[in-house]
Write a structure and sequence with these properties.
The chain has helices at about 10-20, 25-35, 50-60, 65-70, 75-85, 90-95, 100-125, and strands at about 45, 95-100. It is mainly alpha-helical and about 130 residues long.
């Protein structure tokens, strides 16, 4: 549906923030993380960057149907690195991710950045 939230200029960031603080998101990223970790050994410390890219991409399938799913692209490796760089996070390619708390924070950063980019895009292309 084009009406509804679309008329407010695409409020993707608040919608995304709601989802990111939900139990659905919590269950989704953990499930995706577990799948990405298969065959990587199971310590939840010093998590490799490749697990982050896989998890970030897989979480996309769990976005709530509707606007977020329609307008938010699946994040690739470059996007993940760019989003983390934008908030001044340390380079995960070298150090990996310290623990699950930092890992979840990284996923939240990536998806907040996706929503922000979708909002910006829509401001530039209001006809979409």
């Amino acid at each position: 549906g084009v009406q509804g939230a679309m008329t407010s200029g695409g409020a993707f960031v608040p919608a995304m923030e709601d989802w990111l603080s939900s139990e659905e998101f919590d269950a989704a990223w953990r499930e995706c993380y577990d799948l990405a970790c298969r065959g990587h050994g199971g310590s939840d410390r010093n998590i490799s960057d490749s697990v982050l890219y896989q998890t970030a991409a897989a979480v996309h399938a769990h976005l709530p149907p509707g606007e977020l799913q329609a307008m938010i692209p699946e994040p690739d490796r470059e996007f993940v690195l760019g989003a983390l760089e934008a908030v001044g996070a340390e380079d995960v390619r070298e150090a990996g991710i310290k623990d699950l708390e930092h890992f979840e924070a990284a996923i939240v950063i990536v998806y907040t950045h996706l929503a922000f980019c979708a909002e910006k895009l829509q401001e530039q292309l209001p006809a979409i």
